[in-house]
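Subject — a protein and its fold
Encoding — discrete vocabulary of local shapes:
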Amino acid sequence: VIRNTGNRGFAAACNQGAKGSVADYLLFLNPDTRLFKDSLVQPLVFVERPDNRRVGIVGIQLVDENGRIARTCARFPMPGMFFSKMLGLDRLFPRYFPSHFMNEWGHGETREVDHVMGAFFLIRRQLFETLRGFDERFFVYLEDLDLSRRAYNASWKTVYLADAKAYHKGGGTSEQVRALRLSYSLRSRIKYGYKHFDRFPATLLMVSTLFLEPLCRLVLATWRRSATEVKTLKGFGMLWRSIIDRSM
């Protein structure tokens, strides 16, 4: 066990742990993920096959306590996907405004995808080291998506393997944690935009995140008469304070 004196963030902690390993493969798990007896066997057998030499990242089927399959794979987001999410268009008109999450697919079969959820993220050590691990500028959230994007750019494949399963709890959190989680998620979104999009759409994404999205969320929360959703909007205040603190 590696003990740090402070919270370095998820990406930095994963990189730190990876440096202490000598295995050919690295497996990153969420704290609420539990492995079954064969959760690791199938992915390792799959990735070791000669015809899968360019498969660099593997995810598996994640199920909840009722055995329901979580839809955890995603496509690489384009700027428009973030904007449609802010406005709720991906939920109202999913056919015309697809989410970057592959919710339309039941996750019942093995296939190549852009990205697998970091709750179970198996990657070749060689690839991880070549890419210099997770980008530590992402304190938490989207660091796995960023790594998948860089692996894709380097001509590696990511595969979702439906033949193996693991348990992933997920679930609810307190209002304060939801607000903090939203704050970190928004920060990572802005960083992802500036790293992977052209400057104009990245800047538009940042401005929309800071001004448009909180307004849309407030209108929706008021319409739903949801005090919980209103309190979650504190996450935007946390985001604003972090930006102001850095600029001073």
